[in-house]
Specification:
Elements: H1 13-29, H2 42-51, H3 57-70, H4 74-78, H5 82-89, H6 95-113, H7 121-124, H8 132-142, H9 152-160, H10 169-177, H11 185-198, H12 226-230
Helix pairs in contact: 1-11, 2-3, 2-8, 5-6, 9-11
Length: 240
């Protein structure tokens, strides 16, 4: 399916300033914001990101050590038996579809890229089971190429913060990306995703414990009482 055509988007100066302020504050709140998938090579990150669909990073990190040991490179993955790969990745869910994608990725890398993960968006999204979200994760964290990872957390936060009203990830990526310098997009992704996982939850956000609530037009949709909100916060969060 082709991505929808997206034209230029020019946000207001006030919105740009507010968005950048929010990201600066989130840098204080989440100083360790980073990709939470364990990897040592671009291929490992690509595989882990594919597995993270409809799963958690914690669950993915539990299965990837054995998977990486069994299939250490694209050549091994290309020659793998899909049923054996599916058994290894079963805890992440949708194991048959994911195994099919992983073996397909291995074969495509061998056939098109000499077994190496490409560092171009166009090449990455041409791989089986790889979309823009996965491609931007790999580009940003394996190759240092800035990109915005519009996953469920980032999309939700951007809409609550009034940065976009778009549900379509491609259109949202364009509108959110226009608020920041391109070099900062990977950092923006990490900080918003961290905040989404720890504070701004989908069902019951901890508004009363949110350091950026003053810049959020949706503040109050969740728990506003500070003490009650603090019980909803997951993990370590620095209060600025």
């Amino acid at each position: 399916m082709r991505s929808p055509a997206v034209g230029p988007h020019v946000p207001s100066t006030a919105l740009v300033r507010r968005a950048r302020k929010v990201v600066r504050v989130l840098g204080v709140v989440h100083p360790d914001a980073r990709c939470e998938l364990d990897f040592t090579t671009p291929l490992e990150l690509l595989v882990a990101t594919v597995l993270s669909a409809q799963s958690t990073d914690v669950r993915v990190n539990q299965v990837t050590p054995a998977l990486f040991a069994a299939y250490p490179d694209a050549f091994a993955l290309a020659a793998a038996d899909e049923s054996e790969v599916a058994e290894l990745v079963r805890p992440t869910g949708f194991q048959r579809a994911k195994a099919r994608s992983l073996v397909g990725i291995g074969r495509a890398l061998v056939e098109r890229h000499d077994g190496e993960v490409p560092a171009r968006l166009e090449d990455l999204v041409a791989l089986p089971g790889v979309g823009r979200k996965t491609a931007n994760v790999v580009l940003g964290d394996a190759f240092g190429v800035p990109g915005l990872t519009v996953d469920t957390h980032l999309g939700r936060l951007a809409r609550r913060l009034g940065w976009t009203a778009e549900e379509d990830p491609v259109r949202a990526e364009v509108e959110i990306g226009a608020l920041f310098e391109r070099r900062d997009l990977t950092l923006v992704s990490h900080r918003l995703i961290f905040h989404g996982r720890r504070v701004c939850h989908a069902r019951r956000p901890a508004c009363g414990a949110c350091a950026v609530a003053r810049w959020c037009p949706s503040a109050g949709v969740g728990e506003s009482d500070p003490e009650a909100a603090r019980t909803l916060v997951r993990g370590e969060v620095v209060v600025p």
